[in-house]
Amino acid sequence: MSEVEARKPQESLQERLAQVVELLHQYRFVESPSHDEQIAQPDEALHQEGLSELRRRLDELHPADIAFILEALPLQERLTVWSLVKTERDGDILLEVSDSVRETLIADMDDQEILAIAGQLDADELADLAPDLPRDVVHELMEALDAQQRERVRSALSYEEDQVGALMDFEMVTIRDDVTLEVVLRYLRRLKELPGHTDKLFVVDYDGVLKGVLPVKRLLVNDPEKQVAEVMANDPVAFHPDNDAYEAAQAFERYDLISSPVVDKNGKLIGRLTIDEMVDLIREESESEVLNMAGLREDEDVFASVWKSIGNRWTWLATNLVTAFVASRVIGLFEGSIEKLVALAALMPIVAGIGGNSGNQTITMIVRAMALGQLNASSTMRLLRKELGVALFNGLIWGGVIGVIAYYLYDSWSLGVVMTAAMTLNLLLAAFMGVLIPMTLQRFGRDPAMGSSVLITAMTDSGGFFIFLGLATMFLL
Question: Which domains, and CATH codes, for the chain?
Fold first, then answer.
């Protein structure tokens, strides 16, 4: 455990954020210009005291906690905190913050600062950071690396961000299978430290081909005179660099892995995956799905500029405007019916609203099943029948409830029947589109969650209005 972690107080993130914000407010207060020349010196003393206290407080925090605080601060206060962080910790913090916040921090740094920070990072960490750095800085940084580091960075950058190769770590411990456990233990003692998340050692032959893994727990509890070949696991869960990273994350969850080898097509060990990267990937994927369902194209800094936020949001807002206009024209087709029976105007939002909620429930279930790999061609029709059955049951039950209410409110049993029928049909439409929309998006190579909430709402609004007003026109007027 590092010195920083040992001193770290057992407080919640919100408490730590509140303390930093309070210190920032004090700092801003004493920073304001004084109108009284006689108290200028005390203000400067308080100013320095506030900076020292804030710097001391930041030194006590873990890089991940500082990253959380930076993401929660407006730009000016964020840059103030960033300037007080020790330079040797900048790289760890940049790796922890979101892409949008990282962009604002890097923009506040000159090239020499960036190079100094990048020089402290491992190859896999440099590969994570490189896409956000200025091109000339990346070129200069690559020139400064030794041949092995340069090759590792290029290897990681050659893969897509959703592939295992882009996430693999190059720091690992390899051993031979023809040595004793005592030899392995002596070898480990000579190392300055073990790479993070080392729960197993990788057993390779003289050509670097993976032969198995030696879990640390087996190393510690077995007779030191035994050879590695007698104790090692011969069938480890291994990945190829071009495997899908999210599928690898699911394997980590399924098999309770902490680390796992990455091998090339010839079985040669080229890296490893670790649990911290997998947890980050799952979190980012979850956040991305939430944003996509709302029609946001990318992670957005909460305190981003107005224009940048507009650029991130306008596409699906424009789509929503078009679908809303279509829904309004559907209502326009039945203006005469609404004029004759004003109750239709009061009841039709209920039909559309319930349909939208039901559709979003279906889409959420479908997108989750797709993400977990639980859907295939043979199960699609079975799933569709199941969702239609749920919609039919809910439509008859809750449609019947609102139909009874409509009867008591407007003293018309026929209006109640129409209400029940319209809600049932719209829920069936919502279930059908809730399955069809994400599967269609996936078939065309798009994220199944992308704008699905917007699309299902558009379908259930327009469809609900048409069904309800159409039935009312046919049977009530």
Answer: 3-162 (1.25.60.10), 174-274 (3.10.580.10), 306-476 (1.10.357.20)
